Amino acid sequence: VAIAPYDEQGYSLLGNTYIVLKDYTSALDAFARARGLNPNNANTYLSYIGTLELSGNRAKAVEELEAFKKQFPKVAGVDEQIKRIQNGTSSNTVTPEAPAN
């Protein structure tokens, strides 16, 4: 990110690294930055939402999934993920993924 501060992929990779380190606050910041650089990347948005869930902020994850559903209506499986989070079920199920361009 120091070399290419306007490259969303660098921030996504940084967010994934922070997840491995269980530093969810920094991961959320990195994914938020990536989202800001490219708000049309559904996968980055899903990474942000997944990190919210990992951090224990399930209510915010559901709120963001609702917003995601409006922004990306063609992505399947969002309602199921909302129900799964609301029921407190583990996230070892498949999360929705945006279709490849």
Features:
about 100 residues, mainly alpha, about 60% helix, globular
Task: List strands and helices in order, with pairings.
Elements: H1 8-20, H2 24-37, H3 42-54, H4 58-71, H5 78-86
Unreliable runs? none
Largest sheet: none
Distance between the termini: 24 Å
Which structural class best describes the helix and strand composition?
mainly alpha
Query: With helices defined by DSSP (H or I, 4 residues minimum), what is the helix count?
Result: 5
Rounded radius of gyration (Å): 13 Å
What percentage of amino acids are in beta strands? under 5%
Rough outline = globular
Count of individual beta strands = 0
The average pLDDT score comes to 88
The sequence of SSEs as H and E is HHHHH
What does this 3D model show about the protein?
It is a single chain. The radius of gyration is 13 Å and the shape is globular. The protein has helices at residues 8-20, 24-37, 42-54, 58-71, 78-86. 62% of the residues lie in helices and 0% in strands. It is mainly alpha-helical and 101 residues long. The mean pLDDT is 88. The chain starts with 7 loop residues before the first helix and ends in a 15-residue tail after the last helix.
Give a summary of the structure in a few sentences.
With 101 residues, the chain is mainly alpha-helical. It is built from 5 helices and no strands. α2 packs antiparallel against α3 (42-54), α3 packs antiparallel against α4 and α4 (58-71) runs antiparallel to α5.
